Fold:
Amino acid sequence: MTDHHIHIGQFNEVYYDALELFELIELTQEQTKITEIRYSSTSSCRDDAELSLVEEEIAYAQGYESKNLTAKPYLWFIPKYSEQGIKVESAASSFDYCGIKLHPAGQNWDEENPGHLQTLHEIFRWADDNSKSILIHCGTQHCDLPTRFENFFAEYTNAHVILAHSNPVKETAEMVNKYKNVFCDTACISKKNFKKLSHLVNDKSKILFGSDFPITHYFSTHLFGKKLSLKEEYLKNIKITAAKEINFQVFT
Ligand SMILES: [Zn+2]
Structure:
């Protein structure tokens, strides 16, 4: 099984070392059956984020060598790179990226800004041309609703769009049911919403497993005062969503 939503790097005051995380995930394999992870670096959210620094992290993470666990990176593209004149195609060619991550709540993508709009088209075109994924953080704010980039889903039909968090469930299911190329992930979803999602989505194979680990660990320890180890947290994340009703599919 693939975990489509893993993070490495700086998250607030904590630094999550990629190799330590990958090793730990591999150690849980007997229980989790996770054989592939797709990750992006939350260092992309730092105020002083620079592509070259994030690329150093990806290069380090790509040094993970294992027969049992495959780790594929996402390029987390931020509006700042667009403002710096960085082209998507050239940034995306540095590694064998499985896709591009967008976080419209963390970073302010403004379609009224011609540079931003052009970059968004470059992102979707790159994914469309190369049959890659675009993992989009979704939520209940106006800026991160699952419908936010709907016109791009319709235009770039060969890009696999993954609506991260499936939040809100109703709008997520509408998009997944309407567009062949739109999928969703289970990162941080509650049991109740997972049930609702499984009920509303017509093609259940379009619900992809994602954990959002280790951000889940950050919130449980730093916000909710829990004392779970990283390993215990990951096993918990898997339990919540790896429900029997769904055989999570894998796609390239
Ligand atoms: Zn995430």
Observations:
- The pocket of zinc ion is lined by residues 5, 7, 187, 212, 215 (CB under 6 Å).
- The domain at 2-241 is CATH 3.20.20.140 (TIM Barrel).
- The longest strand covers residues 2-11.
